[in-house]
Amino acid sequence: MKRWIGVGLALLLGVAVVAAVVLGNRGSGGGGGPAALVTVRGVIGSEKKPFFDDPGVRAAFARHGLRVEVDTAGSREIATSVDLRKYDFAFPSSVPAAEKIKQERGATRVYSPFYSPMAIATFQPIVDVLAKAGVVRDSGGGYQVLDLGKFLGLVAKGTRWDALPGNTAYPARKRVLLTTTDIRTSNSAAMYLAATSYVANDDDVVSSSSQVATVAPIVAPLFLDQGYSESSSEAPFEDYLAIGAGKTPMVVIYEAQYASRLFAADGAIRPDMRLIYPSPTVLSKHTLVPFTDKAAEVGRLLQEDPAFARLEAKYGFRTSDPRVFAGLVASSKAPIPAGLVDVVEPPTYEHLERLISTIQQRYLAGARPSS
Amino acid sequence: MRPGTRLTRHVPRRVTAAAAAALLLLPLAACGGSGGEPEGNAPDVLRVLAGSEVKDLEPLLAKAADAVGVKVRLSYAGTLDGAEEVANGGADGRYDATWFSSNRYLSLIDGASAKLSTQTKVMVSPVVLGLRRAKAHELGWDTRRVTWADIATAAGQHRFTFGMTNPASSNSGFSALVGVTAALSDAGEALDKSQIESVTPQLTRFFSAQTLTAGSSGWLADAYARQGGSGGSVDGLINYESVLLGLAGRLKEPLTLVYPSDGVVTADYPLTLLASSPKKELYGKLAAWLRTPAVQREIMTTTNRRPIVPEVRPDQRFGGAQLLELPFPNRRSAADELISAYLNQVRRPSRTLFVLDTSGSMEGDRIDALKQALAALTGADTSVSGQFSRFRNRETVTLLPFSSAPATPQTFTVPDRDATAVLGRIRAYGDALHAFGGTAIYDSLRSAYETLAGERSNDDFTSVVLMTDGENTDGSSYDDFAAYYRTARRKVPTFVVLFGDSDVGEMRQVAQLTGGAAFDARTGSLASAFKEIRGYQ
């Protein structure tokens, strides 16, 4: 970790001039689009890729003389190991990662045009099994929640699906765990860590090193015992949609991933699929860090232009004006709540990072983390 | 075997702009280039380092040129070799993307994920057991739910036999090994070292039924199809569902697919952009095209793989059973431990004979290359893939050098632990070889088969390697050997290595006659050809 930052800084200092020249040249067209457009390149969390690929979004940028090209990477990778010299902006999925990039790159401001609560995509038979076990319940707000406190209890005991009482629907010998992305690279897993660490810390945001030390052994099995996990949040959701409960009975996602499929009515969400929320949950605030003036213009448009707000909502993101998202929910009759009640703040970048590093050390050590 | 999908010519519409840009960039590229650039790196060519598993997509990929203006050039590498090449930077600048059946092993290597950019899953295929119909029926596996533990029990009782690829060379073998181990360990979470150790006895029982091995899924399927299923010695295969379904028209007795109810490991074929490649846009076009519903349907119908986009649902060929996915290790040490245990403790031992040309024409670089290639197999190659291709614990190795006549065969048996001393003796023997005299290829090859005929035949994986750098000059001819082989008591495959001025036609005949394969070391190194062959032994 420390080493990566060191290398990153050295590279940044060493080739800043070259980068400026290259980026300058790139901006002048030749990449193939109409010559009038200025190309702006960004590295983003993979969950925003469909949004940037949308012809409507590209047209909206074109109307402002911009052509936005993106690569995808995990948010923590964006904040640590990705070579940012190749880009005009970074667009990770959380405020903490954005703050880190902002500091390192000396950016003057950031834009948070939209957010999405962390959610769990699952299936009705799984919900039924977990409801019977007392882990899933009604929130009282028209949606169901996974009680993280009770869930951590199951995990601490190493419970397997086939050991849950009365479970004939999903008698797998696998451990009861939520599928996440790789905690070492990806933001959605980090947001899940934020929520579970809050519960493991007696319902309080982790805010000291001693709390990190106490909480880490409790939450580490949530990630380590899954085995291999993917580095970006599109991949496990794709498995959920295409392969189903056999591979991914429950997957931690951004609400937007599920909502956008419902809004599109493309048939990807089949009748037995369900969206529930962890209780408590956290909000993933997608935050753009611009390195150039043109990239700042991209951030400003995404945050302030109503035409973009409509497009953002189409991709399932909640924008500052809640009516845009609510309108789509109503018109598509999507089973998505207007608001969530049990929402907590993530730890600061330093503490979240320390938690992740502690879990990362357990990967390196190869130690059995659980019970 | 060679890279290169020749694809239709397609002139990009923006050819002038692209050419102008290329001219401008030329001086920069010359300064920054690392050399060794493979030919054909035109702006519309995407150079892909791939697993041989995706070879069956070549006809489909040929259409990408017309559909989206992307010419795909595939080069093939084994699982671990390819992963190491990407992780150590060897693929940077030479390839734009990778396409293996899974990125899971690669992602376990330190620093490898920084080499990768966008990953796009293209299709899905689980690794399952295919068993000839009568055998599946006899075991009752065509009707009731079967677990890996059931399969292991039947294997231990010698009630069926199967073939599987080498986990160090091929992803299907690796996935199968992980799946079987995870299921037998009964742990419910990702494997670690202690679980692997405790499950080793059960694994040994399971793999006692493995009577066919191979370095690639394609060769394994061919070898199985060749034996025809009629009284053949192998009852089935553990492989990708797609490979097993694809065998349908080629077998006298069709396979019944057994989907173990306790889980499988599934390949998801991520087309992955290398971070070092500037051809992001080209990659994006190909990836998006591959996921269009029409192409997904074509992949399903022509290659028997399941679609990855939810808009296209798998059809009835895949059956309706829900497939549980078993956890995959998340540490490289666990993965490597597992492969090592499989090779050195679990599977049947290898019995290998190396018939090695030491004629006068080998003098100089060639004999040195041979010594190096042999030394690599005794542990001198310290890369992970090198360690997995060394002479294994419990393996019996015969070196049979020849010139005008075969020399006396030298046989070494590597013990089941502390292999170092014997490996050192094999290496010393190889180092002492020197080149002189003529080339009695067929007398020497026959001597290898006679050596085997004098041994009690057992269940070891037995094979011959024939390496020669020239034409036969002394003793019997190919026809003499072919006549002998037809009457030989032990029929085992000979893997031939084309080297120097080999008689390519005759060498291929030897491979075909014996059910082996030919490996080309005329352009690559002798050591890498030997390493590739180890996947088949």
Please outline what is shown here:
Chain A: This is Extracellular solute-binding protein. The complex is a heterodimer of chains A (371) and B (537). Chain A is an alpha/beta fold.
* Estimated share of beta-strand residues of chain A: 15-25%
Apparent shape of chain B: globular
**Average predicted confidence as pLDDT of chain B:** 89
Low-confidence stretches of chain A: 1-34, 367-371
Protein name (chain A): Extracellular solute-binding protein
Protein name (chain B): VWA domain-containing protein
Keywords (chain B): Signal
Pfam family, one (chain B): SBP_bac_11
Walk me through this protein's architecture.
The complex is a heterodimer of chains A (371) and B (537). Chain A has 371 residues and is an alpha/beta fold. Chain A folds into two domains: 2-113 and 285-332, Periplasmic binding protein-like II (D-Maltodextrin-Binding Protein, domain 2); 117-282 and 343-365, Periplasmic binding protein-like II (D-Maltodextrin-Binding Protein, domain 2). Helices cover 46% and strands 16% of the residues of chain A. Chain A has 15 helices and ten strands. In chain A, strands 1, 2, 3, 4, 5, 6, 7, 8, 9 and 10 form a ten-stranded mixed sheet that branches. In chain A, a hairpin with a 5-residue loop joins β5 and β6. In chain A, α8 (187-200) packs across α9. Chain A is globular and about 65 Å long. Mean pLDDT of chain A is 87; it is low at 1-34 and 367-371. By secondary structure, chain B is an alpha/beta fold. Chain B folds into three domains: 15-121 and 270-304, D-Maltodextrin-Binding Protein, domain 2 (3-Layer(aba) Sandwich); 125-266, 3-Layer(aba) Sandwich (D-Maltodextrin-Binding Protein, domain 2); 349-534, Rossmann fold. Chain B is 41% helix and 18% strand. Chain B is built from 21 helices and 18 strands. In chain B, the strands form three sheets. In chain B, strands 5, 6, 7, 8, 9, 10 and 12 form a seven-stranded mixed sheet that branches. A six-stranded mixed sheet of chain B has the order 15-14-13-16-17-18, with helices on both faces. In chain B, strands 2-1-3-11-4 form a five-stranded mixed sheet. The two termini of chain B are 19 Å apart. Mean pLDDT of chain B is 89; it is low at 1-38. Chains A and B meet through β2 and α10 of A and α5, β4, α12 and β12 of B.
